[in-house]
């Protein structure tokens, strides 16, 4: 029997490679999966790793009307030729291009996952344009999948979509966590000691870590400001930053950049394909983001037995329970970040209790196979009406 054809679309291959890691291989047991994204060379490597076909449509993450029209035309022609039963898009630009092209091409099942709303930080005319694009994406879709309950509420509050078209799968998350892969058991004390020595971290240091894009809307300005402050009172602390800077899209402040460069307690490790070794040498995650969908890094850190400091936003406040596996703070509030970091360092009973709870709370609620199976069932349910 011929398998139904499933097209998965993201703006850049990194989303397929990391945010949806191994999902295509799992789905290929029941579907003919084709991955569509930009950057043909990197996309081909992702497809080879996942054992599925790929097709390149160049897309940008910025507002580029002329390039976007060309991408839409290329996507439409591809879908018209492939005739898939399901098109499933992720990320804003892939969403508008993928959903419009799929509707024009007559694809019967058009699903879009919402894993965050960058537009929430926009203002003025740009916000109005992005609001329109978001609404248009959802209008072209037959089903919209926010990856957290909080995000689902935000979508309804902003009037982007009717409630009947929205669905949150499982407990949230786009891909769940491979809790066997993200486990502290993979690292020996000797390995941890060697990595700490490489980065100038002493055995007695309390290590805070941030993992993600080093940009303003991840709360880096507030986190660095808070660390510089608490390091004066707790000099045996370090702040490890793991991720790339994006100066063209969302730069951090000049003061923050200077601190990252010059402060002896701040260590910038750059982008790392495998973040587990860095989580293994850390004590607590600091993630004061302004907006998220359902952040993988908070689940990854929890699976590695790290309590987390997170902002009170959708996704983050669903993964973390105050005082149980982390601390929840107000958004854009450097003093609150500072106080939470200080609490982690100074309140040993609370810290160790949260650390003990961190991994079990992730394993029980966000195991990867649970999320994948929920999505597979949704695909099959949608196909019943085709």
Strand residue percentage = 5-15%
Q: List the secondary-structure elements in sequence, H or E.
A: EHHEHEHEHEHEHHEHEHEHEHEHEHHH
Strand order in space, largest sheet: 3-2-1-4-5-6
- State the end-to-end distance: 16 Å
Evaluate the radius of gyration: 21 Å
Mean pLDDT: 94
Largest sheet: 6 strands, parallel
Task: Provide a concise account of the structure shown.
The chain is an alpha/beta fold. Helix content is 46%, strand content 15%.
Write the topology of this structure.
Layout: E1 5-9, H1 13-19, H2 23-27, E2 32-37, H3 40-50, E3 53-56, H4 65-82, E4 86-90, H5 92-104, E5 109-114, H6 124-140, E6 143-146, H7 149-157, H8 189-198, E7 206-211, H9 220-233, E8 237-242, H10 254-262, E9 266-268, H11 276-280, E10 284-287, H12 296-303, E11 308-311, H13 316-319, E12 326-329, H14 334-346, H15 348-366, H16 368-383
Parallel strand pairs: 1-2, 1-4, 2-3, 4-5, 5-6, 7-8, 7-10, 8-9, 10-11, 11-12
Structure, described:
- The model has no long low-confidence stretch (mean pLDDT 94).
- Helices cover 46% and strands 15% of the residues.
- It has 386 residues and is of the alpha/beta class.
- Helix 12 crosses helix 15.
- Helix 3 links the parallel strand 2 and strand 3.
- The strands form 2 sheets. It has a 6-stranded parallel β-sheet with strand order 3-2-1-4-5-6, with helices on both faces.
- It has 16 helices and 12 strands.
- The radius of gyration is 21 Å and the shape is globular.
Supply the key terms.
386 residues; 16 helices; alpha/beta; six-stranded parallel sheet; single chain
